[in-house]
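Notes from hallway chat w/ T.B., transcribed later so I don't forget. T.B. wanted the structure written out for a chain they're using in a teaching module, and asked if we could keep both sequence and structure tokens in one place. Agreed to drop them here.
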Amino acid sequence: MSLLRKRQETLPQQAPPTIAESLVELATTAGKPSLFAHSDFVKQVDCPRCGATKQLPSATAYVYCDHCGSLVDYDFRQANADTNAGITNTVYHRLAAAVHGELTAARARGDRARYRELLTGVFAEWIRQCPQAVSPRAKSDQEFAGRMAAYLAECAVGRDFEPSLAQLDQQMNAVIATLERWPNGDGPWRVSNGIWQVASLFKEQMEKTYALLAATGVLAMDPDEAPPGVPLRMEYSTFCQGWIPHLKPEDGQRMLAFFGLDGTYARVSVSAFDTRKCGGCGAELATLPDARAVVCQSCGCKLDIGGGQVPCRSCGAPLTFPVGRSQIDCPYCRSGTHRL
């Protein structure tokens, strides 16, 4: 779908879809060419930094401000669109298994430094193999990816060396072991009502974990500078992705509400916007007229919209430079170009 054909389109007013309805919409639109990402729905949220309301939909679960490029939220609905969580989890567990013995020994002797070192390596390789598992900014920014690996490792250190959190983990695993499971025809197996005790324990564990990480300054290491509450929603989203397929639809909605993931969505209704070409990958993206910076969710570059466009010195393509960059290779002809 061409962005230009949408410029004057007036969409009818409709009630915001539920999570379940919007997941169906994603399933039917995913993969279709559109500068409005994979859907005509946008999550309703305001940027905590500049105050702007989100107007353009996100291509990933990481919701960035249309005006300043800051991370503003995490979208469970998008996280479930063409999800490959099973693959990324498998890769992580395979990488962690290779150093399991060393991790166990380091934890037993209270050696945080060694534990941190081992997990930093695991997370760095995991991000390299599965960049889709974290912020899209990790795709193109190696410094960002390195900081993300260090941040994830420090989160794990803070969590795994806290005795009270370990006790909650043991309680939760014990309850999971008692859950009844039964077949559901051709669909995923169903799980008994004991899942609500598991959900309560998980929520308690995560709330205490992130309170600890905030108090010890670990959350300040996040290279994406996630606003308060967003890291928790990421954890809750991962939990729900794993368990909702095994619940009745009404219980799935109940679980989303329990974790505060049942957000409000609206159809895209933007009357004026510009098109820009990313100086990192060449992708064409929609931007609002008063935007200063946006994140290209094709390659993850944070683009300096306020700095205007610079024509490639060789092919003439109008390019928007990444923030902080004054020289790039044109993504179309690979010629070096720079801006003053």
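Follow-up for T.B.: Residues 203 and 236 are 8 Å apart (CA to CA). Might be a good example for the class.
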